[in-house]
Amino acid sequence: MKVAILGAGLSGLSAAFILEKYGINPIIFEKRNQVGDKTPNAEIHLSILTKPINDCFEYFYYKFGIELKPLNKIKKHTFVSENNQTTIKGNLGCTFLKGDEPVSLENQLKRKLKSQIIYNSSPSYNELLDNFSHIVLATGESGVPAKMFGYYDSLFSLNMIGANVRGNFTKDNIIAWRDKNIFSKGYGLLTPISNTKASLMAFVPDYLENDPRTILEMFYYKVCNTLGQSIEIEEKFDEIRELTNLSPFSKVDNTYLVGNCLGTTLPIPGFDIFKAILTGAFSAYDIANKADYEKSLQPLRKKVINLNNMKKTMENIRDDQFDMLVSALKLAPVRSIFHTKKDILSIAGQLMD
Question: What is the pTM of this model?
Fold first, then answer.
């Protein structure tokens, strides 16, 4: 058996980790000269999105044997609307680094592997078919099903515009903004890396008329105003990601779609890491004849559908309605959804279908 993994992100590296457990050493091809994103930035895992799994890092360890260390625990989540502000407290999730930093999740996974990673390499699909018995497509590109197998179900493209900034932050407190004067259907997020450094991200659909750079500038001043300080921009970064519905098929013959190649339907920070590692690991179990990939994916597919229903509802609410929602978060019964073990968001998503 010869296995090729195209892409050295979280999905591809997770697949390699599981395969090595069963004595299979894949060859990993990565088009860049490193694992992970080019610019290091902080991202989040929110427990409310993966209920009843509360700690996905603990789940990765006990389910797959993948031990990863997050950056910080999230103890506070502040929501800022046009006229209101509320902070939820508790064990809400964690932050982590992506990119070329030694503590990034990709580099943590890489250090656990024996498999060869060939950098600056982009072999064609046909080349891989000629030389390998199994192929895992983990390039991070959501258009793969369309390019290779003729399936296309695009929603829209998402501009993710950000900057790493310096200032005074509370490292266990993430802050989310929703203000249609800036984002229309988008939103912004501040994720501390430490008490003096943070990642600032704006998520905006590309069909909007505003220039993404203008949106980032407006968001920057909004953040400064909320925090009551002038923060310093160190480096900017941006990415355009095409959002597609999940492909109805997860594999074609012995070719597996994992991570974003399976579809990127959730412009919701806090869910991508869960989907990436699960799909990579599940594909490897199928290759090793330990589990059926599509059957393993069924709970994840259902969760994605329900969360998408929630997302669509949130995108269409007015600013005054979001103000009311942020105010409602001050009420104990509403705040309790962040602490229950039940998958409240999926239940709500089913009702909104």
Answer: 0.91
For residue 101, the tally of other CB atoms under 10 A from its CB is: 16
* pLDDT tens digits, one per residue of 56-68: 999 999 999 999 9
Q: Looking at residue 337, which CATH number applies to its domain?
A: 3.50.50.60
* Per-residue model confidence as pLDDT tens digits over 11-22: 999 999 999 999
Flag whether pLDDT at 78 surpasses 90. Answer: yes
Cα 170 to Cα 265: distance, rounded to the nearest angstrom: 31
* Position 224 pLDDT exceeds 60: yes
- As a whole number of angstroms, the distance between CA 262 and CA 266 comes to 12
Q: Where are the beta strands (DSSP E) in 167-275?
A: 173-177, 187-192, 197-205, 232-244, 251-252, 255-257
- Whole-angstrom Cα distance, residue 172 to residue 45? 12
Note whether residue 111 is domain-resident. yes
Q: Select the more confidently predicted residue: 66 or 150.
A: 66
- Token pair belonging to 353: 């279908």
**Does any domain span residue 217?**
no
Give the mean model confidence (pLDDT) for residues 202-219.
75
Residue 267 belongs to domain spanning:
3-155+242-352
CA-nearest of 65, 82, 78, 83 to 20 is: 65
The string of DSSP codes covering 195-226 is SSEEEEEEEEETTSSS-HHHHHHHHHHHHHHH
Q: What pLDDT score does 232 carry?
A: 95
Q: Judge whether 236 lies within some domain.
A: no
Residue 90 within any structural domain of the chain: yes
Number of independent structural domains in the chain: 1
Contacting residues for 293 by C-beta, under 8 A, at least 6 apart: 250, 251, 256, 282, 283, 285, 286
Q: Judge whether residue 84 has pLDDT over 80.
A: yes
pLDDT for 238 beyond 90: no
CB atoms within 10 A of CB 234: 10
CB 100 within 8 A of CB 34: yes
